[in-house]
Amino acid sequence: MDNKTAGNRPHPSRQHEARVQLLEGLAGLLGCHTDLASMLPDRKRPDVFRVNRQRKILFLGEAKDSEPPSDLSARARMGAYLRWTSIHASRCDSTTIVAVCHGQYDHRVGWASALAEGLLDQPILGWTVRSAVLQKGNVLVWAEIWPRQLRQVVVQ
Predict the structure, then answer these.
(1) Choosing a second label site near 148 at 20 to 30 A (CA), which of 31, 56, 89, 121?
(2) Which residues contact 93 (CB under 8 A, 6 or more apart)?
(3) How many domains are there within the chain?
(4) How far apart are CA 131 and CA 45, in angstroms?
(5) Phi then psi for 34, rounded to 5 degrees?
């Protein structure tokens, strides 16, 4: 299992690293090029944490190889990320995307539930959770968070 506290990281698998690269590409497509990996208050380090200050977009991505959505430490870590990014979205009037890239199609509902549950009590008005199969072996589940009214979960 991944240990995401700064300074204590195991060697990731090839699949994990490929998913990190995929998430980095998605962040880049959104124009999120400024790395914020060391900026979380609890010192946890997501795999990808970037911002586009001009367009007010924050992107946080987690690559998963060995952690299923039922893993309590992974869910707790995701909850911490969602709390911090939700506060950021509401205070900065920005769009935030929190994404999980994993390899098990059957896990998409579990990760979508983990994201939705983590957002239910946050100080934000709007969010949506979606999923998509990107390519064989890679599934993306993401939450889009913004300070407007709308809440929905769409799992495909």
Answers:
(1) 31
(2) 56, 147
(3) 1
(4) 23
(5) -85, 120
7 assigned to some structural domain = no
Structure tokens at 29: 């497509």
Structure tokens at 45: 């380090």
C-alpha dihedral, 69 to 71 to 72 to 73, nearest 10°: -110
pLDDT of residue 11: 75
Domain-embedded: residue 9:
no
The Cβ-side half-sphere exposure at 145, using a 13 Å CA radius, reads 31
**3 lies in some domain:** no
Cα angle, residue 32 at apex, residues 28 and 34 outer, rounded to 5°:
115
Q: Is 82 helix (H, G, I), strand (E, B) or coil?
A: helix
Contact 23, 12 (CB under 8 A): no
Tokens of 141: 């589940």
pLDDT tens, position by position, 15-61: 999 999 999 999 999 999 999 877 777 777 899 999 999 999 999 99
The amino acid at residue 126 is G
Helix (DSSP H) and strand (DSSP E) numbers for the chain: 3, 7
pTM of the full structure: 0.86
Domain annotation covers residue 8 = no
> Quick check: 53 and 32 in contact, CB under 8 A?
no
